[in-house]
Hints:
Helix content: over 70%
CATH topology of the domain at 3-77: 434 Repressor (Amino-terminal Domain)
Strand content: under 5%
Distance between the termini: 36 Å
CATH architecture of the domain at 3-77: Orthogonal Bundle
Shape: elongated
Radius of gyration: 24 Å
Largest sheet: none
Number of helices: 10
CATH class of the domain at 3-77: Mainly Alpha
Structural class: mainly alpha
Amino acid sequence: MTLPERLIKLRKAAGxxxxxxxxxxxxxxxxxxxxxxxxxxxxxxxxxxxCNLYGxxxxxxxxxxxxxxxxxxxxxxxxxxxxxxxxKSVAKKKTIGILSGVFLYFIAIAFVxxxxxxxxxxxxIAGAIFLLLFGLATLIIIFSAITYRKNRKENxxxxxxxxLYRSIDxxxxxxTLTFYLLVSFLTGxxxxxxxxxxxxxxLTQIVKLIFLIKxxxxxxxxx
Length: 223
């Protein structure tokens, strides 16, 4: 069975039309039609989304089991390359999302720092705007973490980079908790010391972003 024939079979088995497939993959119907008529083949960065849509593995999509060894090896390399491109695409989109959230955190902190003493804005209004910006930043980060999440293989051992990330995150949490309790008990200013946890959240996202840019892997998700 050829690739176009498999694409048609899988689409029909999923109960989807070409238009529906195109919408889910953010493509045009003509592109899907060309795949199924053999006029063109799916780009490697579309193989993983196709597999997720049809519930098959890259090898099942690209290889029908009846080809010779050379074709089988080529299909395997294409599948591996498709997974690599997909992971890079996920990492890039997630980096943009996290970076946007961190930027909004800084905007929120800078705003609340100058709004009342410098601009003379009503504290209630300034606080409401701060909470709005903070909530929006958190929403963006959470949305990025959920939407652009990579599936991790079960029982996969932690890499050195992941172990380092976990250690740094643990140290940041411990230091933040220590300072939070110490400063709060000494000053009694519980109404303001909670901002330390905002700083901790910002620092955590910055560390996560650094590792994401450096390694292309997200160590912040637990499956």
